[in-house]
Predict the 3D structure of the following.
Amino acid sequence: MLVTGEHEPEPAPGAPQPQEGDDPQALSDILLRRYLLRDLLWCQPCDRPIVPILLRPASRYYACLSQACPHPALPARVMEYRVWGRFVRLYGSMAQGVPRERRHDALRQMLWRVVVGRSMTDLRCEWRA
């Protein structure tokens, strides 16, 4: 699921979060494919999935849709860089030469999910056996 925001909040802590029960607008599959971690992120404090959101045309984020969630929208670029970096360190030879458009598939093969704790720096990758 990909949701869009109507406002243009700053990506700083305390930025507005999507509201539970909002009627999200589905965007095209082409746009959704830009989100490397789609269907892989999980909010540990809320015990819910974290979904891609588009707060403005060039601002990709991931967010938990729970109103009680302790963190605001997570910048997609930062989260993707951190998770892909862990993948490269663990599966170096497998990661070599994977084009950006195929990275989601590579991650899905080896990664069960990425659990985000109380802060965006608290990431736990759960790798497939």
